[in-house]
Specification:
Jelly Rolls, about 40% helix, 2 domains, DNA-binding, alpha+beta, about 20% strand, Arc Repressor Mutant, subunit A
Length: about 290
């Protein structure tokens, strides 16, 4: 699908729609949005830096857009389908699939015309200076057994609403985080991919080619491309760009280095190309992101 023009993402959008229904559990009462106010509170979620989680039964014109989302967002599709904005492109998410939207970038999700969309979500609260749960081998989209996460969120909601057993709340909140980590940090990820991206992260400034990446994995370029698509939801070169921009985002947050210096450090020969790519994927110019 087409990418979103930067001008179209100048401010947050939050349209739930009259027929959308949801259940939400909050870590605290700090979020003052009206639709969050009826959700029960479970302070134990904060131990895993979870801001809120829930089940959404969305219907058009449901649309959420965050220009600078302050934490990782996981979505697991239960029924129907919708679209998410990631890497500057819209991608469909269908039943039995999940996605991870990284923090401090432009993220969005919405229903397709005439189609309902039921999903579970977990929203984290993270600081720019800390490492998010998204890692070098985290998929952007992929297949996912949604039933356990759905059950954990519903159990947490029920216990937070009526039971208030400390032991039960502990177990439910642990399970919610566990199922997110199962998707975000897959231990079953192919060792060849792990080897490639571990090597790349030690030298992001290098002008990596597909053939070089494939040689690290001892695969052909086409085999690596298929494997990356299956495991990560991106092509090898797209994932390389993702890693470079995540490192750039971190450097912009913790250093005073010039944009040109950071661009070279993460593998961009041209500061102009770096700025345009950063704007497309993250939603801000590097200079804007820093401020």
């Amino acid at each position: 699908m087409k990418s979103v023009p930067p001008a179209a993402a100048s401010q947050d959008i939050e349209i739930l729609g009259k027929t959308t229904r949801y259940q939400v559990v909050r870590a605290d009462i700090s979020d003052l949005r009206g639709w969050m106010q009826d959700g029960p509170v479970c302070p134990l979620l904060a131990q895993h830096h979870i801001s809120h989680c829930g089940i959404m039964k969305a219907a058009p014109p449901f649309e959420i857009l965050r220009t600078n989302q302050s934490g990782t967002f996981m979505l697991a599709c239960l029924e129907g389908e919708g679209v998410i904005l990631t890497d500057g492109q819209w991608k469909r998410i269908r039943a039995g699939q999940a996605c991870l939207l990284p923090p401090f970038v432009l993220n969005a999700l919405k229903c397709l015309p005439g189609k309902p969309w039921n999903f579970a979500w977990v929203r984290y609260r993270e600081a720019r200076e800390t490492r998010p749960i998204v890692s070098s081998i985290s998929p952007v989209t992929g297949t996912f057994d949604t039933a356990p996460l759905q059950a954990a969120i519903m159990g947490l909601h029920a216990e937070s609403s009526t039971g208030h057993s400390a032991s039960a709340l502990h177990h439910w909140s642990e399970l919610v985080h566990h199922y997110v980590l199962r998707f975000a940090q897959p231990h079953t990820s192919d060792d060849r991919l792990w080897r490639v991206w571990q090597r790349v992260e030690t030298d992001l400034a290098h002008a990596w080619t597909l053939d070089e990446l494939a040689s690290v994995a001892c695969l052909s370029g086409e085999h690596l491309r298929r494997l990356c698509r299956k495991e990560l939801g991106r092509s090898p070169m797209q994932h390389l760009t993702h890693l470079r921009l995540q490192r750039a985002r971190h450097l912009l947050s913790i250093t005073d280095d010039k944009v040109e210096v950071i661009a070279r450090a993460v593998g961009f020969e041209s500061a102009f190309t770096f700025s345009n790519t950063f704007n497309k994927w993250i939603g801000w110019r590097p200079s804007e992101f820093r401020h």
